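new request in #modeling-help
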Amino acid sequence: ENNFFLIAGPCVVESEELLMEVADKVSGICKNLGIPYIFKASYRKANRTSGSSFTGLGDEVAMQLLKKTGDKYKLPVTSDIHAHEEAAIAAQYIDVLQIPAFLCRQTDLLEAAAQTGKIVNVKKGQFLSGPSMKFAAEKIRNAGNDKVILTDRGNTFGYQDLIVDYRNIPWMKEHGAPVVMDCTHSLQQPNQTSGVTGGNPQLIGTIAKAAIATGADGLFIETHPNPAVAKSDGANMLKLDQLEPLLQQLVKLRKAVV
Amino acid sequence: ENNFFLIAGPCVVESEELLMEVADKVSGICKNLGIPYIFKASYRKANRTSGSSFTGLGDEVAMQLLKKTGDKYKLPVTSDIHAHEEAAIAAQYIDVLQIPAFLCRQTDLLEAAAQTGKIVNVKKGQFLSGPSMKFAAEKIRNAGNDKVILTDRGNTFGYQDLIVDYRNIPWMKEHGAPVVMDCTHSLQQPNQTSGVTGGNPQLIGTIAKAAIATGADGLFIETHPNPAVAKSDGANMLKLDQLEPLLQQLVKLRKAVV
Amino acid sequence: ENNFFLIAGPCVVESEELLMEVADKVSGICKNLGIPYIFKASYRKANRTSGSSFTGLGDEVAMQLLKKTGDKYKLPVTSDIHAHEEAAIAAQYIDVLQIPAFLCRQTDLLEAAAQTGKIVNVKKGQFLSGPSMKFAAEKIRNAGNDKVILTDRGNTFGYQDLIVDYRNIPWMKEHGAPVVMDCTHSLQQPNQTSGVTGGNPQLIGTIAKAAIATGADGLFIETHPNPAVAKSDGANMLKLDQLEPLLQQLVKLRKAVV
Amino acid sequence: ENNFFLIAGPCVVESEELLMEVADKVSGICKNLGIPYIFKASYRKANRTSGSSFTGLGDEVAMQLLKKTGDKYKLPVTSDIHAHEEAAIAAQYIDVLQIPAFLCRQTDLLEAAAQTGKIVNVKKGQFLSGPSMKFAAEKIRNAGNDKVILTDRGNTFGYQDLIVDYRNIPWMKEHGAPVVMDCTHSLQQPNQTSGVTGGNPQLIGTIAKAAIATGADGLFIETHPNPAVAKSDGANMLKLDQLEPLLQQLVKLRKAVV
């Protein structure tokens, strides 16, 4: 029970088969390792760099698949929402509403998410400091909901790189909310001339280990059976069969920390 | 006619009196100097750092005041919009729809703005490169609207500072749209522990001169008769009575450039 | 023997008493914890921000004190050198020659240090990437010395902050040299208007834990019985009596990693 | 006499022929345009990324060629020095001693340069703010020499890019010294895996224009008849035959500023 929790799944809802395959595999691993698991997939990608990239199967269809997956494997599910009017709809299907990093300052969105009563997981903008996330947490709490999670996904470091500042973990823990490290998007290489964000998936373990060592309460890892054919973020997702050995190492590390 | 154009006004619609005072003063200055002028004020501040900051008079009221101001002084008016459903409403009152920097990757918002047929001015995210703004322009053009403006407002430089990269002016001009320098928000000092963004208004002239020298087509300058009592961005606005001497210098500089 | 090693001591040679006190205390702790220990103090501070800051007792005097300390406690000692002609002199007293971060690209200095046959510990410039440290290691090896250590001390992040990029640990390990995390200078707050660099010593543990978790071979920690009265870097040094509990935690963490 | 001054020449002393060709051409252009001209070439490159890059013809030979060039064309000459003992030697041949950016905090070097009585041009480190250059100027003045020039050459922006912060021009002018923009090295792309720094010479005009517009007193531009075959910094030097049209534009701009 002193373990970290895991938010994991494929970047986007591509198909029912994909969701079930990942949920089945990851929930089994997490059960063995005593890791509380929240299944993650986006029902829509609303801020792709390029307008021609895949954005989803349709919101309702994708949300229903998320719910079906959660029901079958008895898992809470999470997805990101992008506009205040989506909050109430998504809350019918989803247990943890995630606020995308670019939108972490949109007061309407935070308040609408808060008002659903669901857990709200706010990603720290790439342009924000950990201490500034205090104001995001306050917006949610002032809307009557104290179930807040704060997630770090790295900071802008020049145009084509992100860097993780681990000082943000203790700094954000001061805000009284669980702190998660997003080990996937922290490794993005944005602003590529191709319009497709690059990545560095071989460093997921490095990002995750430092997070556990510095006190992160949870980890966020996108995973896919075959990232090379994934419809979004293929450059950053962990290959599904590499998840278990990584989590084993991290559980061992966690025990040395707490 | 070879002059730069100006987007200027108070940060937020505080009152009818304020809008009229600023429009009267600035339109007079611009007429004398041959500067095409677009009146700017936000009808709502949707992403204040702190939930307790002023956000506006109410959208409809504020939009009507904007329109009234434009009508009286025969000026096009501009304001930022924050959600796709606001686009069509705002388009009834406003001539240039501005997309906030944090939202410049939100495809739905860009497309909804484009579909109004109005001019769309996209601010470059603090986390984005000038070359990447190609994709923002394409999203608007692919939605059937080629009236795009691209605005730079600086880049994240550590947590509490922004920096302007003037290479972005020629880089963004390659996207075939007029390029504007936002001389106000480029000087913000974000992530202050107070929850109130700081500024450096004495450097507005520096930011503006470098922009004109490097080929910017327009300038964005927030101005207020008394920034110390302004309800938003007081730390960065130019005092209204300092605008004319600055514009005189800039017009002289512009003539040496083109 | 699978433990990390420690480079620690006061920032600068202030007096014989200080060196002996620190060496006595730290060597005792390290013996208990099985941590190989290298005693560190600078004989001169050559790049203080302000010309009026303390720079040392005189090179020869300070080097002799370093040697005396090492001899008494049977510890290798290290200090930084700043010019190629210092290398051979320092090598008479010192076991590990440290190259300051600002000077890590000075070919003459690296080669002169290499030619002493001593271990050469190169600090990564705040402006350099881990992969680029390959060239520093090569300059030393090409001068006939393969006893290279590479140390990270953070990267420039805006003007007044540094950030540690833990990706540099695996990246620098690829260069075939032990990698050290400097937990003191990584927390500097440079470019203060006072001319005195600031710090964040309460985060030393965070920096150190992430380093061990991601595979660092050694840690560098400046420590002083009373940082508030130290003659250099007082803002960043760990209070001597806080070192033991920190090292205990880190040893526990290390066992979970290797 | 209100014009800016120019520091220009090839990056490194490659041969007498090269120096004479560049000095002849540039001095003619500058005479026509009323630009005070200081001839620049390095007698040694002391901090090449890779140990296998060209570093010079030998210090004495190269210094003599510099002096010969200055004498022939009646130009002051400048070069960078790298160690305190070089200062007095270089001062026999060279009129303006330049302190490299990486070394701008080395107190010994600044003081030795100051003590020659020559003009000392300190480059701002990529990791330093303009306000912090106050301390560099003070070190020189406190050594009895008030002939200080301060040069900006950009700031670290991620690993592989530099960015110029034009706020540094007014900030450094407050230190009471002429301020120069280095239009060549500001465009470097460091930390390339090849070990050879890249560049963006097509943006030299952008960097220079913004500098003149914001009040720079001088410009530094490396130029070579054929940058593609240059032995150092080929990726950033301006082709010699492009210098005259650029300077013509800049002189026009300057007149609109002062």
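bot summary: The first helix of chain C runs from residue 16 to 33.
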